[in-house]
């Protein structure tokens, strides 16, 4: 059941537009199965706010979550453009290349750029 639950977790859940903080989350079931997901919400002031919100969701599903890092996302749906950059003061910098690969699964027709510049 846990692997099926893990498979049902969306890989990407981000705000529909704007510039906002995001985190990469490694979600693990009770066995060895894991999945990396991207979460970013414009209504969250801190990266930890995103993690706290999502961790509650995963716990209800019987899953564990850890955050290896974060940054920011610029999302412009009109231009079909995403930019992944920056870092989290609390969690450190996410692997933006991994985040880009995950975002591309939901936004295959977008231009997605990554940068280590900016906060």
Automatic annotation (TrEMBL):
| One record GO biological process | sex differentiation
Where on this chain does substrate bind?
21
Q: Which GO terms describe its molecular function?
A: protein histidine phosphatase activity
Asked if the record carries the keyword Hydrolase, the reply is: no
Q: Where is the active site?
A: 47 (proton acceptor)
Biological function: JanA and janB regulate somatic sex differentiation.
- Please report the name of this protein according to its UniProt entry: Sex-regulated protein janus-A
Q: Which gene codes for it?
A: LOC108045433
């Amino acid at each position: 059941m846990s692997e099926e639950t893990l498979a049902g977790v969306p890989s990407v859940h981000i705000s529909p537009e704007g510039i906002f903080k995001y985190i990469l989350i490694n979600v693990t079931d009770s066995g060895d199965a894991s999945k990396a997901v991207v979460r970013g919400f414009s209504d969250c002031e801190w990266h930890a706010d995103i993690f706290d919100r999502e961790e509650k969701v995963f716990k209800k599903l019987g899953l564990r979550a850890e955050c290896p890092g974060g940054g920011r996302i610029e999302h412009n749906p009109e231009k079909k453009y995403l930019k992944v950059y920056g870092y989290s003061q609390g969690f450190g910098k996410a692997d933006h290349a991994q985040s880009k690969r995950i975002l591309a699964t939901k936004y295959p027709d977008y231009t997605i750029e990554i940068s280590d510049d900016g906060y």
